[in-house]
Amino acid sequence: MTTRTDLDGSPLGHPTTHAERYDPHLLFAVERARQRESLSLRGDLPFRGADLWTAYEASWLDPHGKPQIGILTFVVPAHSPRLVESKSVKLYVTAMNQTRFASAAEVIATIARDLANAVGAPVAVTLTPPQDFAQLPRAEPAGESLDDLPLACDRYELAPELLVARGAAVSEALYSRLFRSVCPVTGQPDYASVQIAYRGAQIDRTGLLGYLVSFRRHPGFHEHCVETIFVDLWRRCRPDALSVYARFTRRGGIDINPYRTSGAEPPPANARTARQ
Description:
This protein is of the alpha+beta class. The protein folds into two domains: 7-135, GTP Cyclohydrolase I, domain 2; 144-261, GTP cyclohydrolase I, C-terminal domain/NADPH-dependent 7-cyano-7-deazaguanine reductase, N-terminal domain (GTP Cyclohydrolase I, domain 2, 2-Layer Sandwich). Helices cover 20% and strands 32% of the residues. It has helices at 32-37, 86-94, 104-119, 205-213, 222-237; strands spanning 29-31, 48-61, 67-77, 82-84, 124-128, 144-145, 165-182, 189-203, 241-248, 254-261. The strands form two sheets. An eight-stranded mixed sheet has the order 5-3-2-10-9-8-7-6, with helices on one face. A two-stranded antiparallel ribbon has the order 1-4. It starts with 28 loop residues before the first strand and ends in a 15-residue tail after the last strand.
């Protein structure tokens, strides 16, 4: 597989046709390093984690030509050198629609291999059949909501200076459903619920909510937005432990849910929220 990393060549923002035959070259890889350099991240990263993807519109043909469907999930590790652009994943999955596979296991193995080649690290893939759809987990963000705090908003560009921590150490989880950023290529809005768990000097909640709202016009991929939140909190508030988890609403039948943590715990269960 040829890895392409120049965003100008991405299918985002360009008219595309939907292929009907499996083609791994449809996957478009983007180097993480370019985005992380804007955060002055070089060498060892201050976080671990993964990007949890769900593709709700997977379909292919069985050996007899009968259509099959399922819900795909895959986990891309944060330490992978590359991510995959979401529209290219949509085109790649759609291209399987008229392709015959011997079994669901072959579909899983094929996608796991192609994604691993694209991102440069192993990718865990699962495929849930229709009879198990009702068993897929659902959950809302954990912790206390920030969204009812009184807040006069006039900052819609990144404002990390709003982040302040002071006083006695606490351990708490906070979340907001008011997060919005924009696609760096198309300018389309991306909505998410963002959950922040930390241990350390208490973070000013009004300032934290204002900071999250300040992403409203910020152009960034989902993964980069979460890493920006993590790095700004890590540097300005200096917690002893920190995790940031965002559940983005789906676009093109796909949602992306990045998780970054200072600890060694595994990513949370890929449980969709009501908005997803």
